[in-house]
Design a protein that fits this description.
40% helix, globular, HicA_mRNA_interferase, 84 residues, 5 strands, Metal Transport, Frataxin, Chain A, 3 helices, alpha+beta, YcfA family protein
Length: 84
């Protein structure tokens, strides 16, 4: 199992939302085909055929737990876990 497979499994489990590295989450979204735009401390992600946009901000070296939950909801809603 690769690094991103483990990360998706960790995100989907919901057991460690406060322990996801921000850079790992950013790289995962780019790997899943999201376009990234950076405006100051805001990292904004959009993907064609996905109506929601993700707006992430770093909390130290970690992603904010509520933002990990938002990413999980989009992965589940749009069945992105199998696209890698």
């Amino acid at each position: 199992m690769g690094k991103y497979d483990k990360l998706i499994t960790q995100i989907l489990s919901g057991m460690s939302d406060a322990n996801i590295a921000f850079d790992d989450l950013r790289n995962l979204l780019v790997r899943l085909g999201f376009d990234e735009k950076i405006r100051g401390s805001h990292h904004i992600y959009r993907k064609e055929d996905i109506e929601e946009k993700l707006n992430l901000q770093q909390d130290g070296s970690k992603a904010k737990p509520y933002q990990v939950r938002q990413v999980r909801a989009i992965i589940i809603k749009y069945h992105l876990a199998g696209e890698e």
